[in-house]
Amino acid sequence: MRRKFIVGNWKMHKGPADADSFADGLKRALAGKNAAVDVGIAPPFLSLPAVVARLKHTGIQVAAQNLHAEASGAFTGEVSGEMLRQAGVAYCLVGHSERRQLFGETDAHAETKVLACFRSGLLPILCVGETLSEREAGHERDVVTRQLTAALGKLQADQVPSVTIAYEPVWAIGTGKTASPLQAQEMHATIRGWLEASFPAFVARSTRLQYGGSVKGSNAAELLRMPDIDGALVGGAALNMEDFLQIIAAAG
Ligand code: PEP
User: Fold this and answer.
1) How far apart are CA 249 and CA 23, in angstroms?
2) Beta 91-94 vs 61-64: how paired, if at all?
3) Which of 5, 214, 216, 218 for a ligand 1 pocket mutation test, highest count of atoms within 8 Å of Cβ?
4) d(Cα 5, Cα 230) in Å, to the nearest integer?
5) CA 91, CA 66: separation in Å to the nearest integer?
6) Which of 234, 240, 244 for mutating ligand 1's site (highest number of atoms within 8 Å of CB)?
7) Hey, where are the domains in the chain?
8) Which CATH number is 4-251 given?
9) What pLDDT, in 10s, does the model give residues 144-172?
10) Segment 3-18, tens digit of pLDDT
């Protein structure tokens, strides 16, 4: 019942012209194919309008990489969920580890940003995951459970399945080190267990859990075969058409 969902996070890559041409290529490559897989891309803010226009009526989803918690105000350099909705964006990443590690975002920010997504009509993709030292200390489950509780714990049960949860171990992001399928499955089962313990049963059954961290064409199939892995959040490999299409094909 959970459709696989593959999302490419372009980070700070591809300005409007490159983004438009990639989106056009993706649209052509997927036309009439992979109807069983949901696909999305998360370009930088400035490239969103071109990508939204190019992907209109294709079913390929467009996500922002961040939002500000307020709808408007004196927040120089920020973009609100309401503005993203107005621009035709459907999804938004929240709490990506680069936001947490490089821009000081905390669990409290993740909570307010998830709420801002619901207020503005965006679908959140909440990123959670432990650092290498947290894993080495044996704290990975506690860290992920804490991040989930902070960001989602106060939501109404019927809101939660609109959230995609991306488990992204920080030590696997952009490092070429992927969690083994068993390591990833273990944490996905923990996340699903947390959903089961926190909400009525339909929530755990219907909420999609993505894995992220050096997913490539060559390792996507074995990860996506795991019972609790419903998709992938892809960084580096989503910048290259051939690699991204290979990952989408592995999900189908
Ligand atoms: C990411 O940025 O969410 C990510 C998973 O990056 P990469 O695939 O490059 O590790």
Assistant:
1) 17
2) parallel
3) 214
4) 6
5) 10
6) 234
7) 4-251
8) 3.20.20.70
9) 999 999 999 999 999 999 999 999 999 99
10) 999 999 999 999 999 9
